[in-house]
Amino acid sequence: MASLNSEPVCKRFHLQDGKVCLAPENDSYATTELSDEDELVIWGVVQYSVRDHGRG
């Protein structure tokens, strides 16, 4: 969990070609590449979800 430019996000943090990216688990959404102007605050790590996400 994090805040990107004051908006809450739940994505995976990783480096891609030397750039910081936030990638969603759902392929229907785009990966976000961060720029120097972006403000990212990491709140924590999701370890468990009680919701059924429909993966089978």
UniProtKB/TrEMBL annotation:
It comes from the Bacteria. InterPro entries: LexA/Signal_pep-like_sf, Peptidase_S24_S26A/B/C. Residues 2-46 form the Peptidase S24/S26A/S26B/S26C domain. Pfam families: Peptidase_S24. This is UmuDC operon protein-like protein.
